[in-house]
Amino acid sequence: MMAPSSFNLQPWRFIVVKKQENKERLKACAFNQRQVEEAPVVLICCGDRHVSKPGYIESIIELRKEHEAINDTYADHMRNSIPKMFESPPSFESMEAWINRQVMLAVAQIMIVSSSFGVDSCPLEGFITSQVKAAFNIPEQVDVCCLLAMGYAAEPFKKYGGHLSWSKVCFPETYGQDFV
Description:
By secondary structure, this protein is α+β, with helices and mostly antiparallel strands. 43% of the residues lie in helices and 16% in strands. Strands 1-2-4-3 form a 4-stranded antiparallel sheet, with helices on both faces. The model has no long low-confidence stretch (mean pLDDT 94).
């Protein structure tokens, strides 16, 4: 997975669901959304909160050392900064918010790359987390962020109901200001 992540911690974890009986179990947890059953592959996209633990941080430092992508100063910075970041988050309200941001970066990358190969995808947020975790033996410290149905659409691409103009979603310097 070549997606970016904060400190290169790579908290994402993916369960690849292909067997029909498992897709049926997942569909029951996802309000019976048809994409879950119809797609050849559904990813359960998760994030592991253990990435903030010293042992995990050390494993990432070692990985970066193997690739000659870190020096001792930055390794010490990671050891000191990462645990503090989760004790007093600077730009997110909770570990769950941070995990979701990181995992969704990877999910977006998967969707873009898949599209370049002609594979369609559909992210789904409608599911009951506790049911998904129980059905697929997902540990307590792992958050389920979304499902990603993947395959080849049976119907041609449908136009969206319209996109907001850039002037509604992009602002110069200050929120709500118009580009002139």
